[in-house]
Amino acid sequence: MCHEVALRVCRAAGFTPRARHHIDDFDAVLALVAADQGVALVPQLATVSKPAVRLIAVPTRRRTRIGYRSGAAAHPAVMAVVTALRASAGAFVRA
């Protein structure tokens, strides 16, 4: 998924990157960047541990959805989780 996002962002900027590695583990991705093996797009949540690389904000957006069984929207547990996730995401976006 992140590889496809990186390709789209690069294409929108007018170039196609030469991908040498495909890894779904962000710690491994950042370790490769720290080892001078290229650059990467990573979500902000993947950088909480303060990696030893330079981080630059990129004006991209990621959409995330909440999924639950059809017809379960009124269930108290589902409502509580949805409310908590929205509150948490709202706090993150404002930070």
Estimate the mean pLDDT confidence.
Answer: 85
Please identify the structural class as seen in this structure. Answer: mainly alpha
Largest sheet: none
Number of strands: 0
The run of helices and strands is HHH
- Shape, per Cα inertia axes: elongated
Please give the radius of gyration in angstroms.
Answer: 17 Å
**End-to-end separation:** 25 Å
Keywords: DNA-binding, Transcription, Transcription regulation
Pfam families: LysR_substrate (PF03466)
Domain LysR substrate-binding: 4-88
Protein name: LysR substrate-binding domain-containing protein
Could you write a compact summary of the structure shown?
The protein is mainly α. Helices cover 41% and strands 0% of the residues. The two termini are 25 Å apart.
Description:
There is one protein chain. With 95 residues, the protein is an all-alpha fold. The protein has two domains: 46 residues, no CATH class; 32 residues. The protein contains three helices and no strands. The two termini are 25 Å apart. The mean pLDDT is 85.
Provide tags for this entry.
95 residues; mainly alpha; 2 domains; 3 helices; 0% strand; DNA-binding; transcription; LysR substrate-binding domain-containing protein; transcription regulation; DNA-binding transcription factor activity
Write the layout of secondary structure elements.
Blueprint: H1 2-12, H2 26-34, H3 76-94
